[in-house]
Amino acid sequence: MFNFLFKKRKYLDCPYLKHSLHFFYDEIRACCSNVKGPIFYSNVNNDTQINLDYIYNKRKEIIAGINSSKSNEAIPDECKNCYMVKDFLTDKKIKQPDNSVNCLFIQNNMSCNAKCIYCVFAYVDKGQKYDVVSIIKSLIDRNLLDKKSKLMLSGGEITISPKFEELITLLDQNLDSQIYLATSGIKYSKALENMFSRNKCWETISLDCGCSDTYMKLKRVDCFNQIVNNIKEYTNKVPTAPLSIILKYIIVDGINDNKEEIKKFFDVVNDLKVKNIIADVNFEDYSVTNNKIVPKYYFELFDYFKQLSEENNIRFEISNQTQQIINKKV
Ligand code: SF4
Ligand code: SF4
Question: I need a surface site. Which of 58, 125, 145, 149 has the fewest CB within 10 A?
């Protein structure tokens, strides 16, 4: 009856809160979660003076708040409902971090060359409000960016950012890490070709199907063949490139939620010699926080993905967020 009195207090010890930066359309945040998480700067544009010490002090302030919380689970309001919270709860108070950054999510370019039916971004097609390259240069100049930082780039469509080649060159020349890039795959990039040749990037392309007709219904641009040809061109230039490409399949109700479409997708995956695939649900319909659970037949589709992957020696993964959504009991 009095168990709650003796319940050990849990503190949020999130590595993203301590050492990561997420450059979003007009915000600079700590992370790229399903919730906004701590926001360091709002309404950012090219006139905003970004002060790295201000960001560091904000992190320390939030951590001090966690350590002094009287709640049984000391979690800042901005982090409640984050699907990763349970992975980061600890019994001990949180040690204040140093001022280093070891993870960058770069997602400030909202221009896009697709029009996906499942797009969740309110700002899509609004371009880029601020230059991330100069902020990253300041981090490098002050020796605050870990050489092995995790680097995740997405959009909108990052490859059509006017600063894309400069950004990739900056990261390539100053860091030892690989770049993880989520892209439509519609634009061929010399910078990526160069990164593939030195095994310094992973490219995830959301193809979602295996033919032009279905692609058109999902992405509302006629670019299926262009993507396939781009992957073939990377492969012609760098034979190992397919090993660094992940093809994604977002299941969308009523369009590609069937075995025939999945089989066609695998035919293309095999033709392109890609060895990694990932499945997601449509976050517009199913999310960690809403009350909808995925239909039962999805489990048969995931089993079909597993079966075809095993038969074709392909590594199949369900994304972390999707895994939590499909495990959800409402
Ligand atoms: S707990 Fe979640 S929302 Fe909070 S900083 Fe970490 S990743 Fe972001
Ligand atoms: S590629 Fe991404 S940003 Fe562009 S329309 Fe599709 S989901 Fe939206």
Answer: 125
Nearest-ligand number for the alpha carbon of 82: 1
Name 80's bridge partners.
none
**CB of 222 closer than 8 Å to CB of 216:** yes
Domain ranges of the chain: 12-173, 198-220+228-330
Residue nearest to atom 3 of ligand 2 (CA): 156
Q: In angstroms, how far is the first alpha carbon of the chain from the final one?
A: 27
Over the stretch 78-89, which tens digit does the pLDDT of each residue have? 999 999 999 999
Q: What's the CA-to-centroid distance between 198 and ligand 2, angstroms?
A: 28
Q: Which CATH class is domain 198-220+228-330?
A: alpha beta
- Look at ligand 2, atom 7, and give the residue with the nearest C-alpha: 119
β-strands 276-281, 245-251 pairing: parallel
Residue closest via CA to ligand 1's atom 5 equals 17
Chain centroid, CA 130 distance in Å: 20
